[in-house]
Structure formats: C-alpha cells, structure tokens
Design brief:
This protein has 88 residues and is an alpha+beta fold. Helices cover 20% and strands 30% of the residues. Strands 1, 2, 3, 4 and 5 form a 5-stranded antiparallel β-sheet that branches.
Length: 88
C-alpha cells in the first residue's frame, strides 16, 4: 500500500571515500504522479556512517545526513553535486 502512494524507488549510484560517507545521486527521476516532495526530479545527497566502526572506516550502517538532500532537473547536475560533496 505504501509503495502505491510513493511509487517505486529510483535507481541510484554513489561515490564513497575510503570507509567514509557515501555521496549518492539517482539515475532515474522520482515518479511524477507519486505524492513525493521530489516528484519528477533527480536527487543527490549523502549518507554518513553510524554505529560500530563508523570512525575506523568499517561502518556497517549509514544514515541520511541532515540537510543533505537536493533536487535537480538534470541527472548530470545531481551527479556533479555528489562529486562536489566527495571532493569537499
């Protein structure tokens, strides 16, 4: 039922610095008819390591970094932002 409301999750790719955060971008748009705040757009953001091993580079779990999501009209803009976050 929830999947019907939000639509299918778009495919995504990511860059990751050795054991650090994962900087991702979607390679498909979110469904335009889904009740999602980023409907019809590409998204980029960051997942940060949490839990045991997070500081040593061997994290087993990640969480979405606060205020890291950004919506883009073009896929290349989403990928470029993920790369900028990686290099920062």
């Amino acid at each position: 039922m929830l999947a019907e409301l939000q639509g299918r999750e778009p495919r995504w790719r990511y860059f990751q610095a050795r054991g650090g955060p994962m900087f991702f971008w979607t390679v498909e748009r979110y469904d335009a008819d889904a009740g999602h705040e980023h409907a019809g757009r590409y998204v980029s953001g960051a997942y940060e390591p949490v839990g045991p091993g997070a500081r040593s580079g061997r994290a087993g779990s990640f969480r979405l970094a606060p205020d890291s999501l950004s919506a883009h009209a073009l896929r290349r803009d989403a990928k470029a932002r993920a790369l900028r976050l990686l290099r920062a």
